[in-house]
Write a structure and sequence with these properties.
Number of strands: 2
Mean pLDDT: 84
Shape: elongated
Number of helices: 6
Distance between the termini: 46 Å
Strand order of the largest sheet: 1-2
Largest sheet: 2 strands, antiparallel
Length: 137
């Protein structure tokens, strides 16, 4: 389970370095540097002067609207490429994609890595589906 950071900027700055001297004699955290992108998103509102509560509201709103947008983008792409004929599909799909039980559990524990996967999946599929229609030479 991920922890919700009240002061994410300090945490981000500690993740930039491969060695952390904060615990005992220090510890190697080079395996944790992949989380820099996720913690950067958390740190941006706080960096620009938002209070910790407002920064968390901004970050959670960002993830919610990113999920909606990525699903809408996939639905729009499928409609444009004639995979789907229903003009209301992109609206229904984005609503159902954003409000499902899998993501509902993630909101309770603020699983930002799950949110990034949920955002990236429709975007990747929006790129791959048009490639299916093209003939391979």
């Amino acid at each position: 389970m991920q922890e919700i950071l009240i002061f994410p900027l300090d945490f981000l700055l500690s993740r930039i370095y491969s060695w952390s001297g904060g615990v005992g004699f220090g510890m190697d955290q080079s395996g944790l540097q992949g989380s820099l992108i996720i913690h950067s998103i958390d740190s941006l509102p706080y960096f620009f002067g938002a209070s910790p509560q407002l920064a968390q509201k901004i970050v959670m709103s960002f993830w919610f609207f990113a999920i909606l947008f990525s699903a809408y983008f996939l639905g729009n792409r499928l409609e444009r490429e004639k995979f789907i004929q229903n003009p209301h599909f992109k609206y229904i799909f984005s609503f159902l994609y954003a409000f499902n039980f899998y993501i509902l559990q993630a909101w309770w524990s603020i699983e930002r890595t799950k949110f990034s996967l949920v955002v990236a999946t429709p975007l990747i599929l929006a790129i791959l589906f048009p490639l299916i229609k093209e003939k391979l030479s």
